[in-house]
């Protein structure tokens, strides 16, 4: 896998507002937030896409979600809720080819047709 902005953040070659780190994962605030709270959780092991995750990576992927839940509790939004999502490849919206978990919070994250818990009729 080629070097990415995330491998440079892990190596501290590019600054980032790091909010969590352990031996396996790193979390930092997104530079282009899409919600009042928006951070990324990345594995320190470079894995390009969700399609490249191997069976032996399962504990690492679990650690990414555990880190997200820990940060959510620490920052006080775990009970109100949040969205945690990974994008995969161009049609999935992936722009950096090093898997990353987007965590968004601080506003309702309804998805049409269920926006704000109001079911709407689809055409």
UniProtKB/TrEMBL annotation:
Chain location of the short sequence motif Histidine triad motif per the record: 98-102
InterPro entries: Histidine_triad_CS, Histidine_triad_HIT, HIT-like, HIT-like_sf
Span of domain HIT: 5-114
Pfam family, one: HIT
Descriptive protein name: Histidine triad nucleotide-binding protein
Organism for this UniProt entry: Aliiglaciecola litoralis
Lineage of source species: Bacteria, Pseudomonadati, Pseudomonadota, Gammaproteobacteria, Alteromonadales
């Amino acid at each position: 896998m080629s070097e990415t902005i995330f491998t440079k953040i892990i190596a501290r070659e590019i600054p980032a507002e790091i909010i969590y780190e352990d031996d396996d994962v790193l979390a930092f605030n997104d530079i282009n937030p899409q919600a009042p709270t928006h951070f990324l959780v990345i594995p320190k092991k470079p894995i390009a896409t969700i399609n490249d995750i191997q069976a032996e990576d399962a504990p690492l992927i679990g650690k990414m979600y555990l880190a997200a839940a820990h940060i959510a509790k620490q920052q006080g939004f775990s009970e109100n809720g949040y969205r945690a999502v990974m994008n995969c490849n161009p049609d999935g919206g992936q722009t950096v080819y090093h898997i990353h978990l987007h965590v968004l919070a601080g506003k309702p994250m309804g998805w049409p047709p269920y926006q704000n818990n109001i079911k709407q009729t689809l055409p």
